[in-house]
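Appendix C: a fully annotated inverse folding record. The material below is reproduced so that readers can follow the format used throughout the book. The structure is listed first as tokens, followed by the designed sequence.
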């Protein structure tokens, strides 16, 4: 019965987060509320392994991550993916701004090893945090072992609400454009809505099989084949290109040739199950720290986060106009470095859903915002942060 109890608690935390987001119209993101609940739970009465007991094991999470990334690829086309080079540049240059401010200014406040240990997880996700944690242990710097994971936890909880505010502003700006153009069938807004609606109707038939064979298990099997192939290629490349990025690209290609459908896992009715499992694993990292540990390094964390976000803001502010993006969208792309996938997907879809007044308007907002956020997140968290962590390990 323990596993069922654990699963129920995890789902209740997810539910409270979603209700809070709906009640505040996404001003307070669901993942922020859920993260707070998990933190309080781990620091009080929750067992540290509750997520694992709820059946969300590391093996499950590995499968979920690969399948979900292929799914994300099915939401985009190759032309659209290449068109997001501006979002990639903005996101990466925002990371450069973070590195500049934290390394140069941060070094005036804290010793070099503290800054080096904190910066990689500030510019990326849990992989960078774990790389730095292991590196500190290997170097015998035990006093800073808790810093990378604590930084990952704290910057995510700051990044969620800040990004939500920016995306709401961008959503309202795009909503004004949509309202002005929606009655003109030749407008860009109308074309994007039609493109969104027709994407599924224009899909190539999968192996020319009749509808009776297009079952959920057939969909899942095809997505799994694409994910397996992507991870195999990633292994052949020895991590030169992150396997997560390859999953996304292969998902795009498989969708373009008609091997998988648009929103494949949603049609197979397992998308939310996998997403909740992945989120639960991320929140489980909150169990690695305690209020006492956080209290001992909170000053370093707050100062470096503020410096990092300031660097992102200045870079985004200066580059938004040259790259043809609004300042809100440019800053949001840079902030994907604070959390990456799946948080970028959840934040974006939540905001688009709450800001839009109709399904067509939601489709227009999603087509404009989601590809930028996804590609920006992969550029920063899946690629840049791993490279930065690898380099910074040599600086300890």
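Designed amino acids, in order:
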């Amino acid at each position: 019965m323990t596993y069922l109890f654990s699963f129920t608690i995890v789902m209740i935390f997810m539910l409270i987060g979603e209700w809070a987001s709906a009640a505040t119209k996404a001003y307070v993101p669901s993942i922020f509320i859920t993260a707070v609940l998990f933190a309080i739970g781990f620091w009080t009465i929750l067992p540290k392994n509750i997520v694992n007991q709820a059946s969300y094991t590391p093996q499950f999470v590995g499968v979920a991550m690969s399948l979900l990334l292929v799914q994300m690829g099915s939401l985009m086309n190759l032309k659209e993916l290449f068109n997001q080079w501006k979002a990639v540049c903005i996101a990466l240059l925002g990371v450069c701004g973070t590195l500049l401010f934290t390394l140069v200014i941060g070094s005036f406040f804290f010793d070099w090893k503290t800054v080096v240990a904190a910066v990689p997880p500030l510019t990326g996700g849990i992989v960078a945090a774990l790389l730095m944690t292991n590196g500190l242990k290997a170097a015998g710097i035990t006093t800073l072992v808790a810093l990378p994971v604590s930084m990952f936890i704290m910057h995510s909880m700051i990044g969620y609400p800040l990004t939500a505010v920016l995306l709401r502003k961008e959503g309202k700006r795009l909503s004004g454009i949509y309202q002005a153009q929606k009655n003109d069938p030749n407008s860009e807004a109308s074309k994007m809505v039609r493109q969104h609606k027709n994407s599924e109707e224009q899909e190539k038939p999968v192996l020319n099989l009749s509808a009776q064979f297009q079952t959920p298990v057939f969909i899942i099997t095809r997505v799994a084949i694409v994910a397996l192939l992507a991870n195999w290629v990633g292994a052949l490349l020895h991590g030169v290109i992150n396997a997560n990025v390859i999953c996304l690209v292969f998902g795009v290609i498989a969708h373009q040739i008609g091997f998988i459908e648009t929103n494949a896992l949603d049609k197979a009715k397992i998308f939310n199950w996998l997403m909740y499992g992945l989120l639960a694993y991320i929140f489980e990292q909150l169990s690695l720290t305690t209020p006492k540990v956080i209290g001992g390094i909170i000053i370093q964390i707050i100062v470096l986060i503020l410096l990092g976000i300031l660097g992102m803001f200045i870079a985004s502010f200066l580059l938004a106009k040259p790259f043809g993006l609004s300042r809100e969208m440019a800053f949001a792309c840079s902030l994907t470095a604070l959390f990456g996938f799946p948080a970028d997907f959840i934040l974006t879809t939540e905001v688009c859903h709450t800001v839009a007044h109709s399904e067509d308007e939601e489709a227009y907002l999603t087509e404009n915002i989601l590809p930028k956020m996804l590609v920006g997140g992969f550029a920063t968290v899946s690629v840049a942060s791993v490279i930065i962590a690898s380099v910074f390990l040599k600086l300890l």
